[in-house]
Amino acid sequence: MHRAFILVLITLFSCFRAQAQTSPYPKDYFIAPMDIPLYLSGTFGELRTNHFHSGIDIKTNGREGQPVKAVADGVVYRIKVSPYGFGNALYVRHPNGYSTVYAHLQRFNDEISEYVKKEQYRQKSFGVELYPPSDLFPVKQGDVIALSGNSGGSGGPHLHFEIRDTRTEKIINPLFFGFEVEDTRHPDLYDLIVYQFRDDDLMASENFRLIEVSDGEYRVAGNDVIDVTGSPAFAIQTFDRLNGAPNKNGVYSIKMWIAGEPYYDFAMETFAFDETRYINSHIDYGQKACCRRTFNRLYLEPNNRLSVYGIKQKMNLPGLVKDSTYQVRVEVSDVAGNKAQLVFNIKGMGNFEDAATDEDALPVFSYKQTNYFKNDNVQIVLPEGALYRDVFFEYREKAPCKGSVGAVYQLGAREIPIHEYYNIKIKPPANYRGKPTKLAVASVSGDRIDDYEGSSWQGGFVVGRTRQLGDFTLVADSIPPRISALDFSQGKRVSGYSFLKLKATDDFSGVAQYKAEIDGNWVLMEYDAKYSLMTIPLGGLELEPGEHILMVTVTDEMGNKSEARYSLIF
Question: How far, in Å, are 316, 320, 326, 378, 464 from residue 323 at the CA level?
């Protein structure tokens, strides 16, 4: 399950986390953004795919359309509408040095909605990012600024709420600001991983189930003492649960002591957006990639620059004296101060014998420098800082998979996380007779095409841009997106309709551009990417009674275009 890799240990500098005690946050300045009990389906800093969660997710009883209020006086300084990410989002700046964010909204209040719609028609785009003048939308505490929704990348109706430092844009845990969220439950601990290193090489790892022996006190199932050869390191799977909600949320703090000495200190009080991808070093990325299990590493990789750790001098692999036993204590806390504790013992069994492994013959990519791999068919350049540690790089040429044009190329292991984008170039096979402009780089998972990675050209190579290692190939894509009407048909009378709904799907590269016109005039078409749903609001359209022509055009990332023409009676 685990791949041996080089882990270069460095002397880690001291880094002190700003504590809430020394920089207190106002506890009575903000009111709650909704007039409902605050039950959370997501907590600040929760471990998500490729990012830490940047706010709290407030449950809205599975419904959309509930009032969202400004939590304090301020001004709306940014408005964003997108089919992805936050969807419909409002940003409010407050005079006390903080800003708040309200995301996945169903719609804005009438005044803001009118302004946004005018800008959408002016730009002829559904997706817009607007920065209104500071005097255009002043708000008072308690003003209804929007209705809650499920827009963008949301997985269900809720309000995503953030608090940011206005000056630095760093996100801060909202639960430090006095919001009433009932939480009397301690975090739950599930599994422990014990790693065994020979110098810098991971030689073995083992998973241990954890059992709760009393309220918040955990032990390793069936093991009083865990034997460790070489140097140990650990990772833990843990979640927090709040009152009134079944969701597995993220924990606030994890600390670890070995033989009474502190070795690890993590707390999710604040972080910057440009740090968020360091989550892939904070977790055991291999477990996430292979098994969809999320473990917090209890040690730092050398290129993990995340700022949420405390003093870091001892956050490395401790050496063990042979036949000596050490107590390990792990403490996990939530913001409310509820704690769970794991205590177990490890025994030093000596060092691994020096012996060559299969990986020793592979090239090593260093996190400290730019790394290259090139042959006649494929080329990659990993920029400095793309890796969190030194890794063995494995290359193989494999047989084509279904849908591929030519061979599949293994470039490293998918279990190795990549922090920075890099270019991958693949040369088309000599016997390819299709249109070169319809070739794209694709990632491969197992024996199937996974994701579109890009389709530009350079020096006879098709070029993609990605942030993962693993298997890649070329794919030919000349199939345009499919457009289908959902609630109307050709010649349909729609004069009583509030909306027209269509579905637009694409087999590979995904929808890149879309537009709707009635009688040749651009009209707003809202796009919900997660459902492939396109909605044309009819309210406010000044159309004479009778026949009108609706034309919908959708283009994918490869430039393949579809058009659908409907004659409708208004």
Answer: 21, 9, 10, 50, 52
The whole-number mean pLDDT for each consecutive block of 10 residues of the chain, a chain of 570 residues, reads 33 31 78 96 97 98 96 98 98 98 98 98 98 97 98 97 97 96 96 92 93 97 92 97 93 96 96 97 96 96 95 80 96 97 96 71 92 97 96 96 96 97 96 93 95 96 97 97 96 93 96 97 98 95 94 97 97
40-42 and 371-374 strand pairing: unpaired
Are 504 and 482 a contacting pair, CB within 8 Å? yes
The residues with which 171 forms a beta bridge, in sequence order, are 164, 271
| Nearest CA among 308, 301, 348 for reference residue 328 | 348
Distance of CA 407 to the CA centre of its chain: 30
Element (H, E) at 95: none
Nearest CA among 65, 44, 69 for reference residue 55 = 44
The answer to whether residues 390 and 8 touch, using CB atoms and an 8 Å cutoff, is yes
Give the chain's domains with CATH numbers. 40-177 (2.70.70.10), 188-348 (no CATH), 362-476 (2.60.220.30), 482-569 (2.60.40.1220)
In single-letter form, the type of residue at position 267 comes to A
Instruction: Assign 530 to helix, strand or coil.
Output: helix
CA dihedral (364, 365, 370, 376) positive or negative: positive
Burial string for 101-138 (b: 16+ CB within 10 Å, else e) reads: bbbbbbbbbeebeebbbebbeeeebbeeebebeeeebe
Single pTM value for the model? 0.92
Distance CA 266, CA 77 (A): 33
